[in-house]
Amino acid sequence: MFIKDIDNKECIDDAESTNHFYDDIPPVVKKLAASCNRHGCFDHLGSIPIPTHAKVVEIIQQARRILFPGYFSPTSINPANLEYCLGQETTELFEKLSAQIVLAIQHECFQARQTCTRCKVQGAEKAIRFIERLPEISEQLANDIQAALDGDPAAKGADEVIFSYPGLLAISVYRLAHELHRMQVPVLPRIMTEYAHSLTGIDIHPGAAIGSHFFIDHGTGVVIGETTIIGNRVRLYQGVTLGALSLPTDAGKRFRNVKRHPTIEDDVIVYANSTILGGETVIGTRSVIGGNIWITESVPPDTKVILKKPELVYSGNGKKNDKRRTT
Predict the structure, then answer these.
(1) Same domain for 194 and 212?
(2) 242-280 pLDDT per residue, tens
(3) 50 and 191 share a domain?
């Protein structure tokens, strides 16, 4: 049967019969528009400026091209054109970042009805301070890459870590966002780390303080809260939470500037799916926290915390209640 021979009258009639559903849309739109007039509506209408999420992502990508020359660039980079390429990228980064910082500051000023804070000058000043920090961030990331090579036998080389390790991606974005957070740039640092979170499953608040040679192995499900302090040469595995204890419903204001998250001292290892909570909780230097541990109290230095060996019960194949301890 050829297509031209198909009787499509029924299909045409069926399509026409659905047209009336479009009449149901305008009343919904009116309700949505009316809802934007209520107090506390989460809309963004009018002339109040706001940063652009897509531009912030561009800033992250451009910063990574600068920090890892040749890895993420669309063109080939060699020693002869290295300074030219870095100069072009860094100048563009300054311009893009300055513009987004200005929008973030303006947005905060408009929302809080503050007096003028010379936002354009602030934007340029903070952007150039960020640019000046790039060499140090590059050095920090070199140490983080070395920590991955030292701590993961599966890592075949720095190229593999840079290209494919989600932990390094999350740490890279965190270290960029942390600089802006230290400068008290609104909104942008959190957009940056949440973008990395969406890609990697690793949630690092830009306010956390993280030392050198930091390594997150596998990484999915790792959560590092805002007031967490992490020392040097710390290693975390997937599913680790460095979080806060249960807080009351009005915690948003009452605990905003209070240390709520733990301190992890130098050379600590925290294995998979362990949870460490509380602002007064300190995991001492060189301690090892085993997998699936729940901790809300401090651990002294040089301490190993593990669960007792569980007991497995095997059944089937004629062997019921055959209890064997795990090795």
Answers:
(1) no
(2) 999 977 666 666 777 789 999 999 999 999 999 999 999
(3) yes
The answer on 158 and 231 residing in a single domain is no
Distance CA 61, CA 48 (A): 27
Q: Of 239, 249, 233, whose CA–CA distance to 288 is shortest? A: 233
* Number of helices and strands in the chain (H, E): 9, 16
Which pTM does this prediction carry? 0.85
- Asked if residue 194 and residue 171 are part of one domain, the reply reads yes
Q: Is there a single domain that holds both residue 151 and residue 89?
A: yes
Contact 222, 202 (CB under 8 A): yes
Please spell the DSSP secondary structure of 139-201, one letter per residue. Answer: HHHHHHHHHHHHH-TT---HHHHHHH-HHHHHHHHHHHHHHHHHTT--SHHHHHHHHHHHHHS
Sheet of 229-230: strand order equals 209-210, 229-230, 263-264, 282-283
